[in-house]
């Protein structure tokens, strides 16, 4: 049994099946981008163990194909198992062993990047200071308790929990949040005669929601919104208050619960950092007579109180700032604002290391066999 | 053919599946941000950061016990904030001070080792392991339970030695609520106040008949 399993997991046939499945998955995923957009396809097809097909509107899902993580994982184990099965130490095989080790590292690094890397953006106006970056896709509902003089307590509820619906209760809040409706992409409109307001309180009482199809173009994003109810623990004596939350509303809405003021807002998901950046100057140069960027750079002040760091940094194209495991790239700009792409990738070194190991293995193999060839070559007989 | 190689393959595959399945960025986060950062930045206080499952049907709020203690008379009471259930300042010679606080958080709030390592990092010191912690930790009995106590020393770069250099702290890490007793300040002053601090910890008890929500 064990032998059969080991033979199966280390077989070349399994490699071929996995590579074929990967081809099919990439093809299907590419086609699916037309309907779902690149980010949704990445999550559904490539960053999952199974590709699910939603059958009907009852929430039933049927597994239809192995996802990217499953195919990649089996390939990785297949490669390691094949290596274990055929491993025989000799100098003549050292290059092959190194090459395989590099490939294993490359695949494992890819998995870790996919699992643990975080990509976000930091937009700064001149003179502005921020110690957080924002997700370009995900949003969060924040409920802020501002009753303390020194601090605000923020409860950040990720979009996935809103999407799931139902009741959200957490230790950070003295009330429950009931998600009545969730719209993946929607437009807000002023109330017209006869239209039903989206909510009973706040801006939602003056607006109607119309659902839109998912944004699939690269330069578009969904505008999620939700209608929620703030519910106390006791029995409701009156009709519950409902609120509309959406990025499109801009300013946070305020309400009172148990005599305390609270704020409510939907915003891009934030990633806080133990340091801050202050934009001192943003420079944008174009080639004369054109709008083609020649150079754009951000001069910023980096401050880290924990490490007692306060220094000027210059971020420009191909010259990112690397600090505390994060990399800040000069990404783009809008008017006088600079937009920095912030990448946290704990396994960023893996592909570099893997390439070095693979190159060393191939080079060793070439030199070893070439030297052997020269050694075996017989001298031509003398005339 | 032995069992080692197939088992090794299984051993590789299973963690992979688990890793792949545990990619969960969907937990509710609760954190505090400063209102008074002049620069406009709003640093979350990671020591009070916590996660909650947010599962449907969970309790609407966590009831934390209100506590009372007998602080020494020379400790100057300070205004309480959302998290601080007790706050004192003690002053020594030459302008030295130490800040004393009691913070209650729902859940384990990171556990004992992580919080002690966080305090070490605040003092510019390297992290320690659980084995090292077992060697340096002491224990104090209190009406709230067994308190794990540590005495940490170090002056981070650029810090004011009159106000920093030592943390004497105690933790009760429970499943439903965690208690954090902390004295941070001038090293000599904190050392001198350590006995009084530990004595105070031993007096902190649930206030009879009272309870308070996590965020009053």
What would you say this structure looks like, in words?
With 383 residues, chain A is of the alpha+beta class. Chain A folds into 3 domains: 2-117 and 348-376, no CATH class; 119-130 and 272-344, no CATH class; 134-270, no CATH class. Chain A is built from 7 helices and 18 strands. In chain A, strands 4, 5, 12, 13, 14 and 15 form a 6-stranded antiparallel sheet that branches. Chain A has a 4-stranded antiparallel sheet with strand order 3-18-17-16, with no helix packed on it. In chain A, strand 13 (260-286) and strand 14 (293-304) form a beta hairpin. Chain A is globular, with a radius of gyration of 28 Å. The termini of chain A are far apart. Chain B has a single domain (62-213), classed as Sandwich (Jelly Rolls), CATH 2.60.120.1690. With 216 residues, chain B is α+β, with helices and mostly antiparallel strands. Chain B contains 4 helices and 11 strands. In chain B, the strands form 3 sheets. In chain B, strands 4-5-6-10-9-8-7 form a 7-stranded antiparallel sheet, sandwiched between helices. Chain B has a two-stranded antiparallel sheet with strand order 1-2. Chain B has helices at residues 4-21, 111-122, 130-136, 187-203; strands at 28-34, 50-52, 63-68, 76-77, 84-91, 97-106, 138-142, 145-153, 165-173, 177-186, 205-213. The chains are: A alpha+beta (383), B alpha+beta (216). Chains A and B meet through helix 1, helix 4, strand 4, strand 5 and helix 6 of A and helix 1 and strand 1 of B.
